Amino acid sequence: MLVEIKVVLNAREPRIVEGPSAGKIIAYLTEPPRRNKANIQLIKLLKEHYGKNSEIRLVKGANSRKKIVEIV
To answer: What is the chain's percent helix, strand, coil content, to nearest 5?
Structure first.
């Protein structure tokens, strides 16, 4: 399943919020985008949200606030 994610940086606490339409997620992250820390935190949050056994792969947008992620 491909999911479109909008990332909001400098949040008070990391969390995932389901967007208003199906297949869209807003991720609030506390880690800075330097050295891939924000992407690592995003993947950890998605694993917590969808289950520890789910495989998550960043498909598009590694350096962008709009990302596409594959969740298996």
So the answer is: 25, 40, 40
